[in-house]
């Protein structure tokens, strides 16, 4: 199929036709990619299993991996869940619209292949003008994972989406680069205490300022944030808990050490005849010598690093480098989300100490 692309610099009356055309495709149970404040999502009518199945086919995504339902506002939450606990109400009030997904008990309205057969669903209210315009125009809950081939780095530009999914989806709303750069934080609110299932754009520290103590799922807390091997989680409760994600085309090693240690690792591979790519902060990159160096931001500004992370992971092709060496980052604030993604993408980690 041909993938129709609409470029939207800002929401105006002139862009109404693009939104209406994209909305019409969704109402016809087609799949349309659109920008959110985190990454680009791949949307389909969450009430129709046949429509949702097209997401899985386009991405090559395993069907036991649940999807997040995107809605326009707080009022729509009640249409799809049995209850909204007090802690969830507080989080909705504080962080939505925004990069937060809440796991709540489903009332069965959403298609079963969205929830992967679980009794709960993830709901999110995105904070992006194009996403909001689309959701209000189509008046549908949209199941929307990241708009990339399964396992690849998530897309933060329309070009990333087109590269992965051209000809596999009906439409693509190009709203320019996204802002946050890593996906939403997923918080399970179905139990006594909220549990972070996936770190993201809202940090644990921010959550705890609003609701007090927040637990971290043991799969995230163990081994300094390492996730289980594929298959270790029988029924993942949120995206990103079971399968390999975010992988660049070339093997990537995480390197935890100072600049001299990083250069030592680079030299080992250069002497072996490898072409070496680097993902590093401004501070570390300044003194390095390698074939290709991608600077993703400053260690003093982890939000900047997060915003450029997926673009950095996508920047290296198999023809460019044989191996990628990537700096590690402090696991504070959004650094938890950064390291979660890097650990999922990496094949190995080496430590100086």
Structure description:
The chain is α/β, with parallel strands linked by helices and 353 residues long. The protein folds into two domains: 4-225, DHBP synthase; 252-351, 3-Layer(aba) Sandwich (Rossmann fold), CATH 3.40.50.11030. 31% of the residues lie in helices and 19% in strands. The chain has helices at residues 16-27, 49-59, 86-95, 112-115, 129-138, 158-165, 204-211, 218-221, 259-271, 282-285, 302-314, 335-345; strands spanning 4-7, 32-35, 40-45, 68-70, 100-105, 120-124, 142-143, 171-174, 185-188, 195-198, 215-216, 252-256, 276-280, 292-295, 323-327, 348-351. An eleven-stranded mixed sheet has the order 1-8-2-3-7-4-6-5-9-10-11, with helices on both faces. Strands 14-13-15-12-16 form a five-stranded parallel sheet, with helices on both faces. A hairpin with a 4-residue loop joins strand 2 and strand 3 (40-45). Helix 1 packs across helix 5 (129-138).
């Amino acid at each position: 199929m041909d993938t129709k692309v609409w470029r939207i610099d800002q929401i105006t009356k002139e862009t109404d036709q693009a939104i209406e055309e994209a909305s019409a495709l969704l109402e016809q149970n087609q799949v349309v990619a659109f920008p959110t404040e985190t990454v680009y999502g791949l949307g389909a009518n969450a009430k129709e299993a046949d429509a949702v199945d097209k997401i899985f086919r386009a991405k090559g995504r395993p069907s036991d991996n649940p999807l997040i339902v995107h809605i326009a506002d707080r009022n729509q939450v009640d249409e799809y869940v049995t209850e909204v606990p007090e802690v969830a109400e507080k989080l909705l009030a504080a962080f939505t619209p925004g990069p937060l997904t809440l796991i709540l008990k489903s009332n069965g309205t959403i298609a079963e292949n969205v929830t992967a057969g679980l009794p709960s669903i993830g709901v999110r209210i995105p904070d992006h003008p194009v996403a909001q315009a689309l959701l209000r125009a189509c008046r549908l809950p949209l199941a929307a994972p990241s708009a990339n081939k399964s396992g690849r780095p998530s897309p933060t530009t329309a070009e990333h989406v087109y590269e992965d999914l051209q000809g596999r989806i009906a439409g693509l709303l190009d709203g320019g680069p996204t802002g946050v750069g890593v996906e939403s934080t997923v918080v399970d609110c179905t139990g006594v205490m909220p549990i972070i299932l996936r770190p993201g754009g809202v940090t644990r520290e921010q959550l705890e300022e609003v609701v007090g103590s927040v637990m971290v799922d043991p799969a995230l807390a163990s081994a300094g944030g390492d996730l289980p091997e594929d298959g270790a989680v029988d029924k993942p409760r949120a995206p990103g808990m079971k399968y390999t994600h975010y992988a660049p085309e070339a093997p990537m090693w995480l390197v935890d050490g100072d600049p001299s240690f990083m250069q030592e690792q680079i030299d080992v591979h250069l002497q072996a005849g490898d072409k070496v790519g680097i993902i590093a902060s401004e501070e570390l990159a300044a003194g390095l010598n390698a074939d290709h160096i991608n600077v993703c931001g400053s260690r003093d500004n982890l939000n900047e690093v997060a915003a450029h992370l997926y673009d950095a992971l996508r920047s290296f092709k198999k023809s460019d480098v044989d191996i990628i060496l990537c700096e590690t980052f402090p696991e504070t604030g959004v650094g938890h989300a950064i390291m979660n993604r890097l650990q999922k993408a990496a094949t190995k980690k080496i430590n100086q100490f």
